[in-house]
Specification:
- This protein is of the alpha/beta class.
- The chain has 2 domains: 3-162, NADH:ubiquinone oxidoreductase Nqo5 subunit (Beta Polymerase, domain 2); 171-201, no CATH class.
- It has helices at residues 3-6, 17-34, 58-67, 132-143, and strands at residues 39-45, 48-53, 75-83, 94-102, 107-115, 121-123, 146-148, 184-185, 191-192.
- Strands 1-2-5-4-3 form a 5-stranded mixed sheet. A two-stranded parallel ribbon has the order 6-7. Strands 8-9 form a two-stranded antiparallel sheet.
- The longest helix has 18 residues, at 17-34.
- The chain starts with a helix and ends in a 9-residue tail after the last strand.
- NDH-1 is composed of 14 different subunits. Subunits NuoB, C, D, E, F, and G constitute the peripheral sector of the complex.
């Protein structure tokens, strides 16, 4: 089967900026109509739309934007987290951000859900998009966000016995002693076993 036969022609059709913007606004309208109490607000910046949603509705909203024929956001490109320490305490310290793309309509949107500082938890989207698996693990590892019902929620970058979350804004730049007990190699190739602080390197 050739490439053109295996990929629907509509996926190969370039979309104009106007078509993309219209589809983004259509997405906002459909979400607000379907989830009037959960699609809270939206904003646009440089051609991309962010929709703030209630965290408890994230799974149903994700399924809706993925499966609705007029939307079809089939691709979860990334899951990130923002720490709004001392900036946005009313809605929650953390915001989970899902970057979605529609191959058919050629546009991107972001879903954003705020979580509290104490016990930040949200349902996993692995049942909706398999790509969420490692992306959610990274957010858990770096920020300490717990994704309920994740099939394998454990550290992915940090050591498994680590108790800190290094991308939180209250985490010190020099760490909390984790890097002071490891041997290091000097420029001339010598291995030094004694510990030292990162500032002394």
């Amino acid at each position: 089967m050739s490439e053109k036969e295996s990929v629907p022609a509509v996926y190969l059709t370039p979309k104009s900026k106007r078509e993309i913007a219209d589809h983004q606004m259509q997405t906002v309208g459909r979400l607000q109509a379907r989830f009037p109490d959960a699609a809270l607000e939206h904003s646009e910046f440089r051609g991309e739309v962010t929709i703030v949603v209630k965290p408890e509705a994230i799974v149903e909203i994700a399924k809706f934007v993925r499966d609705t024929p007029e939307l079809l956001y089939r691709h979860l490109a990334d899951v990130t987290c923002v720490d709004y320490l001392q900036l946005d305490t009313e809605r929650g310290r953390f915001a989970i951000v899902y970057h979605l793309y529609s191959f058919k309509y050629g546009d991107r949107i972001r879903l954003k859900a705020f979580l509290p500082e104490q016990e930040p938890r949200i349902d996993s989207l692995v049942p909706v998009w398999q790509t969420a698996n490692w992306l959610e693990r990274e957010v858990y590892d770096m920020f300490g966000i717990v994704f309920r019902n994740h099939p394998d929620l454990r550290r992915i970058l940090m050591p498994e016995d680590s108790v800190h979350f290094p991308l939180r804004k209250d985490y010190p730049l020099t760490g909390r002693g984790e890097r002071e007990s490891f041997p290091y190699v000097t420029r001339d190739g010598r291995i030094i076993e004694k510990s030292r602080s990162p500032r002394a390197r």
